[in-house]
Automatic annotation (TrEMBL):
Region (Disordered): 502-593
Species annotation: Solanum pinnatisectum (tansyleaf nightshade)
Superkingdom of this protein's organism: Eukaryota
Annotated GO biological process: fucose metabolic process
The name this protein goes by in its record: O-fucosyltransferase family protein
């Protein structure tokens, strides 16, 4: 009987020690669970479609180690970093720089007498703006005096405004005095009105193209008018000429006082209602949708209405709506724009200013966007009819008011790749890289098609991923890529000293280079996203569908000199004029651009 008793005592001893061991392991697991719970964010912080607000009453009362989420940041799903909603990453290290180099001669030393260049712009306000900017540079290339450009009064918009009705003409002339000689009107010739020789040039005409084509005619006729002047200058030019473009576009072209004052009123009223606001260039008008050739589910009625408008442009082919949408060429619907912004972290308390004409489908189309963002404004809702009356019958002046409110916004959202989108994107890069969101429509199309099959978190995460590289951050687009007016990389300088100081402060505070490496990796991803996913250049230039005027003697000004002789003529070192000018061999290439 002794043996069984010993076995029982041994078993009792093992059980006695087992309970404390189990208790110790449980305590350790519980401690780890509590520790991880403290580190983990609250489930409420992961609400992707709600704008987080800062508790101002408790600000300054918390301890130095307490972490708070500011109102301009949102917590998003795993794998996507927090992002400041109202500023671009690293924007403080970049600034606009457009001063001329010491080699850029003064206008009075290079301008030739009896050389006058006149241009007639084409299209709406922003298309005309590109034409005016390029006209100044063209006059500089030709060493000619520029006559204040004439605005398009006959195309789609039928706006009778003159240059001085929209822009401050005296400021324009004075600001560019050292760069190009500009006069308001062509002088009389032998006491009579001088009719300039009319001609046109190919699109994206290089400086050599102007010297070969336009200069010989200018030397013979002394006054040349180039019509339909939009995108008639090459995208890539000498550095000093590119900087001249920036001086014109960002400094010399100032709106007339009446427009500026009304625009400032609209901005002030937006600021009175909210500290921050988003400006959305919706561009969902019937003409835009017709031009795009896209289909939005409106059946035969939509096809008939938009098809009738589309026939205005005789050069457009039959559309393939599905292909256009897959390629990212279709503007997002107002609802899709709202869903994108909510997924990016902008809550329903955010105020939105919508720059738009007549929206196709009217209030029914806008209703989902207004439901997502109830604080919904336009110039018609924040200004009285009487205030807008001086502008309301002029499309360019109304567009100028929208331009000002969009330019001053904290975040600008564009819904297409048109002229206003490009001009404002470039301007916002130049003046501090203010956030400019353009939908990556090519990738977002798939997300919207499948959004009912994914959770809110998945939808938000995918929108964040596909929008990387489309948010207006510095170095987001490679230098030289896209239109210069959209990406004026020559005119944007980097403050290397400030960046070095930030690195020094980080090391001094005991922080390693992990943050810098992470930021660099993110930037590379942004650039790669743009390189691979950037929307195909799609320029819906709503120009008049009628054929362009042709030069009465020579439709395209097809005159050419040898490059050395042309340069000599431009510099004034030769007075010969070779009547047997051969056709420029670059013609086909330039026309194909």
């Amino acid at each position: 009987m002794a043996i069984p008793r010993r076995r029982h005592q041994h078993h009792h001893s093992r059980v006695r020690f087992l309970f404390p061991a189990i208790f110790a392991v449980s305590a350790i697991i519980l401690f780890l669970f509590l520790f991880l719970s403290i580190l983990a964010p609250s489930p409420n912080d992961d609400n992707h479609l709600r704008h987080l607000r800062r508790d101002d009453s408790s600000e300054g009362k918390s301890g130095g180690n307490e972490i708070r989420v500011p109102s301009s940041r949102v917590k998003i799903s795993a794998g996507v970093h927090n992002r400041d909603l109202w500023s671009s990453r690293n924007s403080k290290f970049f600034y606009g720089c457009s001063n001329a180099s010491s080699k850029f001669a003064k206008a009075k030393t290079i301008t030739h007498p009896n050389r006058y260049l006149l241009i007639v712009t084409s299209g709406g306000l922003n298309q005309q703006r590109t034409g005016i900017t390029d006209a100044v540079v063209a006059a500089r290339i030709l060493n000619a005096t520029l006559v204040v450009p004439k605005l398009d009064k006959t195309s789609f918009w039928k706006d009778s405004s003159d240059f001085s009705d929209i822009f401050d003409v005296d400021w324009f002339i004075k600001h560019l005095t050292t760069d190009v000689t500009i006069i308001k009107d062509l002088p009389l010739r032998r006491g009579q009105i001088w009719t300039p020789h009319r001609m046109r040039v190919p699109r994206k005409c290089s400086d050599r193209c102007y010297i070969n084509r336009v200069l010989p005619v200018l030397m013979k006729r002394h006054a040349v008018q180039i019509s339909k002047f939009d995108y008639r200058l090459a995208n890539k030019l000498d550095t000093d000429l590119q900087k001249l473009r920036c001086r014109v576009n960002y400094h010399a072209l100032k709106f007339a006082d009446t427009i500026l004052k009304m625009g400032e009123k609209l901005v002030q009223r937006m600021r009175m209602s909210s500290k921050h606001y988003i400006a959305l260039h919706l561009r969902f008008e019937p003409d835009m949708l017709a031009f795009s050739g896209c289909y939005y589910g409106g059946g035969d009625k939509e096809r008939t209405e938009l098809g009738k408008i589309r026939r205005r442009w005789k050069t457009l082919h039959n559309s393939n709506p599905e292909k256009a949408r897959r390629q990212g060429r279709c503007p997002l619907t107002p609802e899709e724009v709202g869903l994108m912004l909510r997924a990016l972290g902008y809550g329903d308390d955010v105020h939105i200013y919508v720059a738009s004409g007549e929206v196709y489908g009217g209030e029914e189309t806008l209703a989902p966007l207004k439901a997502l963002f109830p604080n919904f404004y336009s110039k018609d809702t924040i200004a009285s009819k009487e205030e807008l009356e001086p502008f309301s019958t002029y499309s360019s002046r109304m567009a100028a008011l929208d331009f000002i409110v969009c330019d001053e916004s904290d975040v600008f959202v564009t819904n297409n790749n048109g002229n206003m989108a490009k001009i404002l994107a470039g301007r916002r890069r130049y003046f501090g890289h203010k956030p400019t969101i353009r939908p990556n429509a090519k990738k977002l199309n798939r997300v919207f098609l499948n959004r009912n099959n994914m959770t809110t978190e998945e939808f938000s995460s995918r929108v964040h991923t596909f929008q990387r590289g489309f948010m207006g951050d510095p170095k987001e687009v490679r230098p030289g890529r896209g239109e210069f007016h959209e990406n004026p990389s020559t005119c944007i300088c980097e403050d290397a000293e400030a960046e070095k100081k930030m690195d020094w402060d980080r090391r001094k505070n005991g922080k390693d280079n992990v943050a810098k490496k992470k930021d660099g990796d993110d930037r590379k991803k942004d650039i790669e996203a743009v390189v691979h996913d950037e929307n195909v250049d799609y320029e819906p230039e709503m120009t008049d569908p009628e054929d362009e005027e042709e030069d009465e003697d020579n439709p395209l000004g097809e005159v050419s000199l040898g490059s050395s002789k042309a340069e000599a003529l431009s510099n004034g070192t030769s007075t010969d004029y070779d009547a047997s000018m051969s056709e420029d061999t670059e013609l086909d290439e330039l026309l194909s651009d």
